[in-house]
């Protein structure tokens, strides 16, 4: 009896650990049905898309990094599982908080925020050098960034 009770406790501890360490992954964007949570636009340009995996299992979808960041400013941090943004190539999902960013008023994005994402600071710096323009930003810079105000 005591052994069964100990096994039960052990199983409960394992279950609680598994719940606490949930791994959040981006889901595929469906252009026909996904709509940006902020601007209500269809996600036509998936290569600029962003999404938030909520702790409750739901997803919030965004058509531009600017929309995603604006939404994150007002959300309860306890609801956030993980936030993702497509990289500049539009092929890879990146963690919004660890990505590096480049801003330029002439960079086209769906809602004209002009900020694109890179996996590393080095990649972002190479893009700036190649294009001859752009301002390097980190995630913490986006928190105070004046979207649409730069010139």
Topology as a string of helices (H) and strands (E)? HEEHEEEEHEH
Find the structural class using helix and strand composition: alpha+beta
What is the overall number of helices? Answer: 4
Q: How far do the termini sit from each other?
A: 73 Å
Major β-sheet strand ordering? 2-1-3-4
Radius of gyration: 19 Å
Indicate the percent of residues in helices. Answer: 25-40%
Shape: globular
Relative strand content: 15-25%
Unreliable stretches (pLDDT < 50, length at least 5) are none
Average predicted local confidence, pLDDT? 88
Kindly describe this structure.
- With 151 residues, this protein is α+β, with helices and mostly antiparallel strands.
- 30% of the residues lie in helices and 20% in strands.
- It has four helices and seven strands, in the order H-E-E-H-E-E-E-E-H-E-H.
- The strands form two sheets. A four-stranded antiparallel β-sheet has the order 2-1-3-4. It has a three-stranded antiparallel β-sheet with strand order 6-5-7.
- Strand 1 and strand 2 (59-62) form a beta hairpin.
Task: Note the main attributes of this structure.
151 residues, alpha+beta, 4-stranded antiparallel beta sheet, 4 helices
């Amino acid at each position: 009896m005591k052994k069964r009770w100990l096994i039960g406790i052990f199983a409960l501890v394992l279950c609680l650990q598994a719940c606490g360490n949930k791994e959040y992954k981006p889901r595929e964007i469906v252009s026909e049905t996904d709509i940006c949570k902020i601007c209500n636009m269809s996600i036509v340009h998936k290569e600029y898309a962003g999404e938030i995996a909520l702790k409750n299992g739901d997803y919030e979808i965004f058509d531009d990094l600017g929309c995603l960041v604006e939404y994150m400013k007002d959300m309860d941090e306890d609801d956030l599982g993980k936030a993702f943004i497509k990289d500049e190539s539009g092929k890879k999902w990146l963690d919004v908080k660890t990505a590096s960013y480049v801003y330029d008023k002439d960079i086209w994005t769906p809602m004209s925020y002009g900020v694109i994402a890179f996996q590393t600071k080095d990649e972002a710096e190479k893009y700036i050098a190649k294009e001859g323009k752009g301002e390097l930003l980190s995630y913490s810079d986006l928190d105070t960034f004046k979207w649409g105000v730069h010139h």
